[in-house]
Amino acid sequence: MAIIFYAGLSELVFMHKYKTHVAYKGEAGGRCRAEEVLGKLILERFAGNGGCVVIAIGGPGGSGKSTFAGKLAAELGGDASILRLDDYKTPRAERSNQNIFGAHPDANLMGLAAEHISLVRENKTFEKPVYDNVTGEVNSRETYRPRRFNILDGEISTYKKFRHDIDLSVFIDSDYKTQLATRTSRDIVVRGYTWEKAIATFLQSNLREFTKYGAESKKWADVHLYCREDYSVVVESVSSELYEHFEGLLAEYLTEVDLSGLVVPVTTPFSKSNEIDKRMFIEHLEMLSKQGVKRILVNGTTGEFFSLMPEERRMMLKLAREYFPGVIMFHAGYASLAETEKEARWGQEYGADAIVAITPYYLADLPGDGLVDYF
User: Fold this and answer.
1) From CA 360, how far away is CA 336, in angstroms rounded?
2) Could you tell me which residues come within 8 angstroms of residue 39 by beta carbon, excluding any fewer than 6 positions away?
3) Tell me, what DSSP letter sits at residue 154?
4) DSSP H or E segment with residue 141
5) 8 A C-beta contact, residue 148 and residue 34
6) Angle, helices 176-189/195-202, rounded to nearest 10 degrees
């Protein structure tokens, strides 16, 4: 699903340039496992490549990278291995003295990791460090023997330093609450952190360091995945090049979502009793479809959407998804941040192709840059 911000009613800014947005096909497709889709894509993509293939799985801490890496390795069969880049962290005491955390490049042995990734590409065996999460030290080494498919797992795996040694880059994102829940539980249970220290680590590592050093790798990632609250992972978008060359394979599971072109905001018809006229709304949707309209915006830019109750807004989305065959953009940005987030989740639940956030009108007279302040 794409997230779209209206800076003004005439300007659209898309999150993922050069990506093809995709959606799962039907109910059966919605239950398809992301690792199955990606596994088949990798096998077909590198079918003629006889050397070692390097696949990077990056993203912020707590977004399910390690779990997904294990599932993907299983999909690729016995000819896959995982090189965990978390083992290349510097000692915890050193990081503490520098006041840096795991997402900071200086908190990792970047040079050694780069050297070892090069050895993987050359199909050469090497001794890699093993980081102890309890002691925060590298206390041992182990042998890594490259295989046909080598999966780099870790926050730093998609960092710019390794970009040119990676054959396929995968970025897993998730809501901050998912990241927070994962990191705090892991840090408290595994590392013995206090609640306060776990929260401080999350704020510094995820929100500050990764945003500064790792988030940009989403720009060049070949595949974007999203980890939901229940830790199920879905394919969000793939590079336009991948989709173009492997459309036949991807079409088994996914359908392309074209967000470009004319978007028609649909009006909300009311009956004389001031209730939403469902029949008229359905007829309007059917008329738009017959006239060749491919994309609509529900609950947005037309004046009455401010007066709708939350349940009415959800009902409009459900009706649109049921009776309009094209792309549906759902506006979820009219009130508080909490309400906006709740309605964005409705969009995901009921199959909206994109979530739109329009700056609330009441911010127009704020001093300074009201739009920047709002976001």
Assistant:
1) 9
2) 72, 75, 76
3) S
4) strand 137-144
5) no
6) 140
Question: Residues 321, 351: contact at Cβ < 8 Å?
Answer: yes
* CA–CA distance, 200 with 190 (Å, rounded to integer): 16
Q: Which residue, 107, 205, 213, 87, is CA-closest to 152?
A: 87
Which CA distances in Å does 366 have to 11, 301, 336, 374?
Answer: 21, 20, 16, 10
Tokens, residue 121: 């590409």
Q: Which of 18, 83, 33, 89 is nearest to 53 (CA)?
A: 83
Strands 11-14 and 233-239: unpaired
Query: What pLDDT is recorded for position 367?
Result: 55
- 333-369 CB burial, b ≥16 within 10 A, e <16: bbeeeeebeebbebbeebbbbbbbbbbeeeeeeeeee
Helix (H, G, I), strand (E, B) or coil at 106: helix
Each residue's pLDDT tens digit, 2-30: 555 443 333 333 344 467 778 777 644 45
CA dihedral 318, 322, 327, 329 (to 10 degrees): -10
Residues with Cβ within 8 Å of residue 272, at least 6 apart in sequence = none
Tokens at residue 162, please? Answer: 């390794």
Residue 12: predicted pLDDT: 35
Tokens of 48: 């003629």
